[in-house]
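step=encode ok
step=design start
structure_in=
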């Protein structure tokens, strides 16, 4: 018997117990692109100290812009985790050069390794497993890999998750033989039940890597639907589509409270649950996402001091 209907009913009705949401949100991370980072005068004014900032690698973005953004955010005191998409790296030499620049110019010692969205590899690499085995990240303190709670048709065109699960088992085994702390950072989702079921399944499959759950920050509904379709978000897209049919909600900005409250409640009731942290995709703007998280954790930031 499938647990999914039960989980859906529970997640839809559950209210997170007092303190569950702030505790679950503690240590949240966020990602930026060079062009969006330029719009933030000082990250210290909007992010709590120690917030991990991922730098998304979008095809066409110059290496110089990626490294400069990493260095700037690091100077402002935040740990930086750049994306390194295997299929967008033109050669082994280019990979080692990129990593050396991140290390030397921005002090980077952590990275999110992923296959990337290109259908055909630009060069020598087509998977994050090859990046892990390359030796380029030896000595890195932390390495994250991508997770897809609702499947990934680029990897499993038949709609199963056979290849994805096999790859995650390989990465979990790799984590056991490396000094780097490893975790799974997921694509964003909008419904708690499939995410909870996926995380519990990973545990049964022997994949014990901590999960950093991706959620979409506050944004216009139309914006979220556009990104969700482009990024291949699966069944939980129906949550947005259902909301779009409600005229009273259509013009209101989406906020991820429902999924966060449900997952936080599950985590509070099951402390060994595999989702350890939240990662925010600021699809409606970096400041809006940070303000949402800071409000729910009761965080008040002192004015940034430049220099």
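sequence_out=
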């Amino acid at each position: 018997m499938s647990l999914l209907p039960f989980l859906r009913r529970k997640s839809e009705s559950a209210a997170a117990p007092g303190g569950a949401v702030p505790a679950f949100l503690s240590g949240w991370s966020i990602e930026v692109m060079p062009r969006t980072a330029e719009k933030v005068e000082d990250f210290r004014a909007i992010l709590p100290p120690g917030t991990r900032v991922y730098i998304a690698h979008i095809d066409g973005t110059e290496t110089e812009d990626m490294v400069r953004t990493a260095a700037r955010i690091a100077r402002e005191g935040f740990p930086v985790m750049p994306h390194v998409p295997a299929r967008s790296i033109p050669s082994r030499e280019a990979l080692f050069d990129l990593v050396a620049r991140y290390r030397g110019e921005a002090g980077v010692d952590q990275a999110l390794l992923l296959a990337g969205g290109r259908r055909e590899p630009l060069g020598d690499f087509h998977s994050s497993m090859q990046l892990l085995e390359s030796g380029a990240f030896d000595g890195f303190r932390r390495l994250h890999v991508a997770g897809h709670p609702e499947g990934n048709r680029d990897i499993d065109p038949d709609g199963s998750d056979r290849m994805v699960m096999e790859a995650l088992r390989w990465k979990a085994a790799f984590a056991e033989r490396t000094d780097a702390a490893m975790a799974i950072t997921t694509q964003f989702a909008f419904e708690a039940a499939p995410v909870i079921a996926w995380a519990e399944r990973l545990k049964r499959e022997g994949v014990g890597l901590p999960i950093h759950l991706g959620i979409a920050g506050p944004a216009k509904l139309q914006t979220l639907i556009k990104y969700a379709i482009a990024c291949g978000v699966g069944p939980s897209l129906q949550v947005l589509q259902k909301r779009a049919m409600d005229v009273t909600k259509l013009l209101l900005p989406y906020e991820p409270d429902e999924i966060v409250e449900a997952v936080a409640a599950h985590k509070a009731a099951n402390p060994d649950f595999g989702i350890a942290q939240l990662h925010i995709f600021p699809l409606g703007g970096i400041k809006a996402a940070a303000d949402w998280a800071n409000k729910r954790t009761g965080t008040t930031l002192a004015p940034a001091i430049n220099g």
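step=design ok
step=annotate ok -> Residues 4-294 form a domain with the TIM Barrel fold (CATH 3.20.20.220).
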